[in-house]
Automatic annotation (TrEMBL), chain A:
GO terms for cellular component: plasma membrane. The chain crosses the membrane at residues 6-25, 37-58, 64-84, 96-117, 145-163, 183-209, 221-238, 245-265, 271-287. It comes from Psychromarinibacter sediminicola. Coiled coil: none annotated. PANTHER family: ABC TRANSPORTER PERMEASE PROTEIN, SUGAR ABC TRANSPORTER INTEGRAL MEMBRANE PROTEIN-RELATED. InterPro entries: ABC_transp_permease. This is ABC transporter permease. It holds the Pfam family BPD_transp_2. Its main location: membrane.
TrEMBL record, chain B:
Keywords: ATP-binding, Cell membrane, Membrane, Nucleotide-binding, Repeat, Sugar transport, Translocase, Transport. It comes from Psychromarinibacter sediminicola. This is ABC transporter ATP-binding protein. InterPro entries: AAA+_ATPase (IPR003593), ABC_carbohydrate_import_ATPase (IPR050107), ABC_transporter-like_ATP-bd (IPR003439), ABC_transporter-like_CS (IPR017871), P-loop_NTPase (IPR027417). Its main location: membrane. Residues 6-237, 253-498 form the ABC transporter domain.
From TrEMBL, chain C:
The chain crosses the membrane at residues 20-38, 58-83, 95-113, 119-141, 150-172, 203-221, 249-268, 288-312, 324-345. It is a multi-pass membrane protein. GO terms for cellular component: plasma membrane. This is ABC transporter permease. Pfam families: BPD_transp_2. Keywords: Cell membrane, Membrane, Transmembrane, Transmembrane helix. It is found in: Cell membrane. GO terms for molecular function: transmembrane transporter activity. Its main location: membrane. It comes from Psychromarinibacter sediminicola.
C-alpha cells in the first residue's frame, strides 16, 4: 500500500464534494421532521431528482436548468407523499417506503434513454484570489456553485428555525399539532410546505450525484444515500449545524475508503465499500444511546397523523 | 347594566349523531363575569370553539359590540379582542415560555422585548413566570399562567377560560380569582366555563346553564341555590353514594420509601412515598395534575418497576414484579387515560377484556386465547356495569367516555381484586356514570378490598375517601382522616399557593 | 369540498374492498403510464394480468407463479408481524441475502458428499439462522441502545450486498468455474438441491414453507397470546405495557421471526430457482414483500393472495418485456404505484367521505 498517493488537500476537497448530495437531502429532511413529518422516501426523491436533473440538463445543455428541474420534479413527487399523509392520513412509514419504491421504479423508467451519456459539465465557481491560497484555496475555494449553495442552505435553515416567526410556527406544529391547531395555525399547510421543501432539497442532492459527483446516470445510483441522509438527521439531534457535521463526517469516511482502495490497502474492496454504512450504523447507535435532554430536540409529534376532529 | 359586548343568537352546531349546540342564545356584557355551566358533554367546548373561531356554526349569529362577529379562524377572533385559556392542548412542551406566548399573539414583538413584557405583566398580576424556561418543565399551575399571560398581553375585551381551576390548589384558585376580579375592574369581560357550582357562586355575575346542547336556564348564581343549579345542569335529582360504616381491616398495600424516576422527560419523579392502605378502606389521593399521579399509578400497576420492598402486598415484596405478576396476586389498576392506556381504541370490547383479564379470569390456556370465555367475561362486565353498547364485538372507541370508563373500571372490579388502584375514575364522565362508578368503588371497599383513588376532583375524594393524602411534586403528604378536613388544610397538603402571590391591586 | 369523518369503528367491508379497489385503480393508472410509453394500454394490462394465467403459454407461466410467489409470501408474512406491532424491519433484502449465503455455505461445505437427509435440512436451518442473526443486529441495537430499527435494518442491506459480492468473488467461488464469479450450482448437487416437488407446478420446498408460514401466522395472530400482544402493541404501545407486554421481547421476536423467514426464502431461492450465489443473486424480493405485506392488509390470507398477485406482475412484466418491449422498470414503477394507491384508498376503512360544505378546521 502506498499512502503517499493520497494528497490531503485533494482528499479534503473531494470530501466536500462527496458530502454535498447527502447534506442537501439531509437539510431538507431536517425541516420536514421539524414539522413533525417523517418522510422515509428521501431515497426515492433523490433518485428521481437525479434523473430529472440529468435528463433536463442533457436536453437543454444547461446544468443550472437541470438542478431547477430536479428540485421541481422531486418536490412534485414529494407531494404524492404529502397528499397521502396529510389528506388521506396514511401511515407515514409505509407511505415513505412506497415513495422510495416508486421513485426507484419511476427513475429507472425515465432513465431508459440516458444510460452511458455524459452530462454537460458545470464549471467551478471562480473565487479569484481566494482559490489561489495554498492548501486552503484548493480545499475550500475551488468548487462548483452547488457546494456553496448547500452550505448557504444549512445557514439559512438554521436562521429560519431559530429567528423567524415562520420557523417558530413550523417547530410548534412539529411539537404539538393539536396545540398549533387550537391556536389557529394551519397544520396541514405548514407540513405540506415542509414536505415540498424537503423534496426539492432531496432532488438537488440527487441531481448533484448524477451531474457533478459521478457524473452519469445509472439505475439505483443513489445507493442508499437517501437513507444515510435520514440517519444524519438523527445524528444531528435535529440541529442544522449537526447535519453539516454529520454529512461531512460521512463524506470523509467515503472519500477515505475510496482513497484507501486506490492506494491498494490490503483489505478486500467489498469490506472497504461497506464501511460507510457500518460507520453510519455505529454513529446512530452512539447518538441514540445517549438519552435524556438531547433527545428533546426530536419533534414530539414526529410521525403522527393529524386529523382535526372537531 | 353595562352595554352588551358579545351577543349570541340561535347558535347551532351538529356533528354526526349528536347536536352539540341547539339554538343557543345568551349575552355577555362589558366587564361581566359570565358563567357557562354544564356537565361534560353538555356542549360547552363546542360553543367556545365557535366563539374562538375554531369551529364554524351551522346556524345562528354572533355580534360583538353590535357589529356582526363571524371569526373564521382563531386569528380573526384574537384580532376582534377575544382570548382564550385552554383546558388542554395549547402549549408546546419543548418550547420556551416566551415562544409559547409569541405563538398565541397576533403581532408578537421581538423575543427580548416580549420577555420583558412577560415579566412586567406577570408581576402586575401576581403570576410569576420566567420567560426563558421550557414549558415542559413547569407545573400545571405555572403552565396555566403561561396561557393567562398570553391572553393578557393582547388586552382582550373578552377572556374565555375553560375549566381553569381544575389544575389549581384551593389557595391558587383564590389568587386566580383575585386576578380575574382585577381584570373585571379594568373592563374585561370573562366567559367562565365550569361545572363547579361553588366557584361560580363566588365569581360570576350571571350564569347560562347548558344541558345536552341547549340553554336550560339563565340565572344569577349569587341568588340561586347550588342545588337548584345542579338539578338544572344534570336534569335529575342526583344519587349521592351511600356507604356503610365499618372498621378498617389489616394492611393490604404498603409503600415504603417508593422512589421512581419518571419515564417521560417532562414527567414528575416519585420521591420517597410511604403509605398504608387497609382492607375495606378507600384512600383518596388528591393533587394538582402533573404532580406524579401517572407515575404513582404506573408504579402500583407494575408498568414502572421499583425496589422490591418499596411496594408490598400483604407483606410480600412486589416492587420488581410486572403488571401481570401483580394481577396474579390481586393488585389491579385502572389508569386515567381510557383510550390508548386502559383500553386499545380499535380493539373490540372482548379483546379489551383480555387486556387485563387474561390471568385472573383464566382466558389463556397454554398461550392460546379462549375467545368464547373472553366474550363471556366482556358480556358480564357490560351487564353488571350497565355499559351501553350494541355488544362486545364493538370497538372501544365507539363507546362514549362514561360507558368506556364503566367498562374499564368494571373489568377490574369483576376480577375480585385484593387491592384496586384507580386514577381519575370519573374524569370526563357524565354525572350518572360518575355516580355509578363511585358507588361501585364504595361497594368494593365494603367487601373488604383496599381501594386507592387518585383524583384531581376534591369533591369526589371527600365524598368517597376514608383517608386523604395529596401528591405535590412527586411527594405524598401524610394521609389524614378525610372527615373534618377543611379546604384550607387540603390546599396546604396539595402544596398551598406554591409561589403565587396576590395580584397587586393598584391599577 | 370533501371532508373526512372518523368512523366509530373500522369498516370491515372496506377493509376487504380497498385492496381490490387499489388494484383496479393501479391498472387504470398503469394503463395510462404504458400509453405514455407508446404501448397499447389494454394489450399491456392483458399481457401482464391475463395471458400468464389463461393465455397461450400459460402452462409455462403458471409454474413460474409459485416460484415467484413463494419467497414474496414467506418474507411478507414475517414482515407483517413486525409491521402490526409497529416494528419496522425493512431490511428483509439483507436477511434474505445472508440466509442464502449461510445456507449455501453449509451445502457447499459438504460437497461432494451425498446425504440428502442430512445436508438439505442442515442448509434450511443454516438459512433460517443466518437471516435470524442478521435481523438480531437491528433488534439488539434497538432494545439495548434504542437505535432506530428502520435505518439500521435498511443500511444492513448494503452491507449484505457487499458481503454477497465478496462471497461470490472469493470464499464461495466455484473452484472449477475458471475464475468466473459465482459459486457451484446447487441445483446440480442432489443433496443440496431445492427441487420442484410436483413437475410443472413450480412447487418447491420454499412454497411449502410459505404455506406453513401463512397458517402459522394466522393461528398466532388470531388464537395465541403472543399474536394478541403484537396487535395490541401496534395499536397502542402504552396499553400494551399496561397489559404486561414486554416491548423488548416483542422487538426481538418480530425482527427475529421476519429475519428467519427472509433467510429461509433466500436459502430456498439459492438452492432452487437461482441455483448459485452470484453477485446479482438478490432481485428485490425483500422490498417487494413490503408491498405484498401492505396489500394483504398485514393479514396472512391477504398476504397469500397479494403474493400471488405481485408474482403475477413479475411474470406478466417479463412477458410484456418479451412481447411488447415494455421496459422492466415499468413494472417496478407499477408495483410502487400499487402501494401508493392502496395507502390512498385505505383511508376509507377508518374514515367516511362526506361531500358538502367545508368546515373551518
Amino acid at each position: 500500500m502506498d499512502l503517499s498517493t493520497i494528497n490531503p488537500a485533494v482528499l479534503l476537497a473531494s470530501l466536500m464534494v462527496a458530502s454535498t448530495p447527502i447534506l442537501l437531502a439531509a437539510i431538507g429532511e431536517l425541516v420536514v421532521e421539524k414539522s413533525g413529518v417523517l418522510n422515509l422516501g428521501v431515497e426515492g426523491m433523490m433518485i428521481v431528482g437525479a434523473i430529472c436533473g440529468f435528463a433536463v440538463s442533457v436536453e437543454t445543455g444547461s446544468p443550472v436548468l437541470g438542478f431547477v428541474a430536479a428540485a421541481a420534479g422531486s418536490a412534485l413527487l414529494s407531494m404524492t407523499f404529502g397528499i397521502l399523509t396529510q389528506f388521506f392520513l396514511s401511515n407515514q412509514v409505509a407511505t415513505g417506503l412506497a415513495l422510495t419504491l416508486f421513485g426507484l421504479g419511476l427513475s429507472a423508467l425515465m432513465g431508459q434513454g440516458y444510460v452511458g451519456i455524459k452530462p454537460p459539465a458545470m464549471g467551478d465557481l471562480n473565487l479569484g484570489p481566494l482559490g489561489d491560497i495554498p492548501f486552503v484555496g484548493r480545499v475550500l475555494f475551488q468548487h462548483d456553485v452547488m457546494v456553496y449553495v448547500s452550505l448557504a442552505l444549512v445557514a439559512a435553515v438554521w436562521a429560519f428555525l431559530k429567528y423567524t416567526r415562520a420557523g417558530l410556527i413550523l417547530r410548534a406544529v412539529g411539537e404539538s399539532h393539536d396545540a398549533a391547531h387550537a391556536l389557529g395555525y394551519k397544520v396541514v399547510v405548514v407540513r405540506l410546505a415542509a414536505i415540498a421543501f424537503g423534496g426539492a432539497c432531496a432532488g438537488l442532492g440527487g441531481a448533484y450525484l448524477s451531474l457533478i459527483r459521478v457524473p452519469q446516470w445509472t439505475e439505483g445510483m443513489t445507493a442508499g444515500a437517501g437513507w444515510i441522509a435520514l440517519a444524519i438527521v438523527v445524528f444531528s439531534s435535529w440541529r442544522a449545524w449537526g447535519v453539516l457535521i454529520g454529512a461531512y463526517l460521512f463524506g470523509g469516511v467515503t472519500v477515505l475508503q475510496l482513497n484507501l482502495q486506490a492506494a491498494g490497502l490490503d483489505v478486500p474492496v467489498e469490506y472497504l465499500s461497506m464501511s460507510p454504512y457500518l460507520i453510519t450504523i455505529l454513529v446512530l447507535v452512539i447518538m441514540s444511546s445517549g438519552r435524556g435532554r438531547a433527545a428533546l430536540n426530536a419533534p414530539a409529534s414526529l410521525g403522527r397523523s393529524f386529523h382535526a376532529s372537531h | 347594566m353595562a352595554d352588551t359586548l358579545l351577543s349570541i343568537e340561535g347558535l347551532t352546531k351538529a356533528y354526526p349523531g349528536v347536536v352539540a349546540n341547539d339554538d343557543v342564545s345568551f349575552t355577555v356584557s362589558e366587564g361581566e363575569v359570565h358563567a357557562l355551566l354544564g356537565e361534560n358533554g353538555a356542549g360547552k367546548s363546542t360553543l367556545v370553539k365557535m366563539i374562538y373561531g375554531l369551529v364554524k356554526p351551522d346556524a345562528g349569529r354572533m355580534t360583538m359590540r353590535g357589529a356582526p362577529y363571524e371569526p373564521a379562524t382563531p386569528h380573526a377572533a384574537r384580532q376582534a379582542g377575544v382570548a382564550m385559556v385552554f383546558q388542554h392542548f395549547s402549549l408546546f412542551d419543548a418550547l420556551s415560555v416566551a415562544e409559547n406566548v409569541a405563538l398565541g399573539m397576533e403581532e408578537a414583538p421581538k423575543q427580548r422585548q416580549l420577555a420583558r413584557r412577560i415579566r412586567e405583566v406577570s408581576e402586575t398580576y401576581g403570576l410569576p413566570l420566567d420567560p426563558d424556561r421550557l414549558v415542559g418543565d413547569l407545573s400545571a399551575g405555572e403552565r396555566q399562567r403561561v396561557e393567562i399571560i398570553r391572553c393578557l398581553l393582547q388586552d382582550p375585551k373578552l377572556l374565555i377560560m375553560d375549566e381553569p381551576t381544575s389544575v389549581l390548589t384551593p389557595q391558587e384558585v383564590e389568587i386566580l380569582f383575585e386576578t380575574l376580579h382585577k381584570l373585571q375592574h379594568e373592563g374585561t369581560a370573562i366567559l367562565y366555563i365550569s361545572h363547579k357550582l361553588e366557584e361560580i357562586r363566588t365569581l360570576c355575575d350571571n350564569a347560562t346553564i347548558l344541558r345536552l346542547g341547549q340553554v336550560v336556564a339563565t340565572c344569577d348564581p349569587k341568588t340561586a341555590s347550588a342545588r337548584e343549579m345542579a338539578e338544572l345542569m344534570v336534569g335529575a335529582t342526583l344519587h349521592t353514594p351511600s356507604r356503610a360504616a365499618k372498621a378498617p381491616g389489616d394492611v393490604v398495600l404498603e409503600l415504603s420509601g417508593l422512589s421512581v424516576a419518571s419515564a417521560n422527560p417532562f414527567g414528575t419523579s416519585l420521591k420517597d412515598i410511604t403509605l398504608e392502605v387497609r382492607s375495606g378502606e378507600v384512600l383518596g389521593i388528591g393533587g394538582v395534575a402533573g404532580n406524579g399521579q401517572d407515575e404513582l399509578l404506573a408504579a402500583l400497576s407494575g408498568e414502572a418497576p421499583a425496589r422490591a420492598e418499596a411496594v408490598c402486598l400483604h407483606g410480600e415484596a412486589v416492587g420488581r414484579l410486572g403488571p401481570n405478576a401483580r394481577r396474579r396476586l390481586g393488585l389491579l389498576a385502572a389508569p386515567e387515560e381510557r383510550l390508548g392506556h386502559a383500553a386499545a381504541p380499535d380493539m373490540s370490547l372482548t379483546e379489551n377484556a383480555v387486556l387485563t383479564g387474561a390471568i385472573r379470569e383464566q382466558l389463556v390456556a397454554n398461550g392460546f386465547l379462549k375467545w368464547p370465555e373472553a366474550k363471556g367475561f366482556a358480556e358480564r362486565i357490560i351487564e353488571a356495569f350497565d355499559v351501553r353498547t350494541p355488544g362486545p364485538g364493538n370497538a372501544a372507541r365507539s363507546l362514549s367516555g362514561g360507558n368506556l370508563q364503566k367498562f374499564v373500571i368494571g373489568r377490574e372490579i369483576l376480577q375480585r381484586p385484593i387491592c384496586l388502584v384507580v386514577n381519575q375514575p370519573t374524569w370526563g364522565v357524565d354525572a350518572s356514570a360518575a355516580a355509578a362508578i363511585r358507588q361501585a368503588l364504595l361497594d368494593l371497599a365494603a367487601e373488604g378490598v383496599a381501594v386507592v383513588v387518585i383524583s384531581q376532583d376534591l369533591d369526589e375524594l371527600m365524598e368517597i375517601s376514608d383517608r386523604f393524602a395529596a401528591l405535590n411534586e412527586g411527594r405524598l403528604s401524610e394521609p389524614r382522616p378525610a372527615q373534618g378536613l377543611t379546604v384550607e388544610e387540603i390546599g396546604l397538603m396539595m402544596g398551598g399557593a406554591h409561589d403565587m402571590e396576590v395580584a397587586h391591586v393598584d391599577g | 369540498m370533501i371532508r373526512l369523518e372518523k368512523r366509530p369503528q373500522p369498516s370491515r367491508a372496506w377493509s376487504y374492498a380497498t385492496p381490490v379497489l387499489a388494484v383496479i385503480v393501479t391498472m387504470i393508472a398503469g394503463g395510462i403510464l404504458f400509453a405514455v410509453l407508446g404501448k397499447d394500454p389494454v394489450l399491456s394490462i392483458r399481457t401482464i394480468f391475463w395471458d400468464p394465467l389463461f393465455g397461450e403459454f400459460a402452462f409455462y407461466y403458471r409454474g413460474q407463479l409459485l416460484v415467484k410467489a413463494g419467497p414474496l409470501i414467506l418474507i411478507a408474512i414475517g414482515l407483517s408481524l413486525g409491521f402490526r406491532a409497529g416494528i419496522w424491519n425493512i431490511g428483509a433484502e439483507g436477511q434474505y441475502i445472508i440466509g442464502a449465503i449461510c445456507g449455501a455455505a453449509v451445502g457447499l461445505a459438504f460437497y461432494p458428499m451425498e446425504a440428502r437427509w442430512l445436508i438439505f435440512p442442515l442448509m434450511v436451518i443454516a438459512g433460517a439462522v443466518g437471516g435470524f442473526l442478521w435481523a438480531m443486529i437491528p433488534a439488539i441495537l434497538k432494545t439495548r441502545f434504542n437505535t432506530n430499527e428502520i435505518l439500521v435494518s435498511l443500511l444492513l442491506v448494503y452491507v449484505a450486498e457487499q458481503l454477497l459480492a465478496s462471497m461470490a468473488l472469493g470464499t464461495l467461488r466455484n473452484p472449477e468455474g475458471s475464475g468466473f464469479p459465482g459459486s457451484r450450482n446447487l441445483q446440480q448437487y442432489d443433496s443440496a438441491a431445492n427441487t420442484e416437488l410436483i413437475a410443472g407446478t413450480g412447487m418447491h420446498w420454499g412454497v411449502v414453507a410459505a404455506l406453513l408460514a401463512v397458517i402459522g401466522a394466522y393461528v398466532l395472530l388470531n388464537r395465541h397470546m403472543l399474536g394478541y400482544q403484537i396487535r395490541l402493541t401496534g395499536q397502542s404501545p402504552r396499553a400494551a405495557r399496561f397489559a404486561g407486554v414486554r416491548p423488548r421481547l416483542l422487538v426481538v421476536f418480530c425482527l427475529g421471526a421476519s429475519g428467519a423467514l427472509a433467510g429461509l426464502a433466500g436459502l430456498f431461492e439459492v438452492a432452487g430457482p437461482a441455483g448459485q450465489i452470484s453477485i446479482d443473486f438478490n432481485s428485490g424480493y425483500g422490498f417487494t414483500a413490503i408491498i405484498v405485506a401492505f396489500l394483504g392488509r398485514l393479514h396472512p390470507v391477504g398476504i397469500l393472495l397479494a403474493g400471488l398477485l405481485l408474482a403475477l406482475t413479475y411474470i406478466g412484466g417479463e412477458a410484456a418485456q418479451a412481447t411488447l418491449g415494455l421496459p422492466a422498470a415499468a413494472i417496478q414503477a407499477f408495483q410502487g404505484m400499487l402501494l401508493f394507491f392502496l395507502l390512498a384508498v385505505d383511508v376509507l376503512t377508518n374514515y367516511r367521505m362526506r361531500f358538502g360544505r367545508a368546515e373551518v378546521a
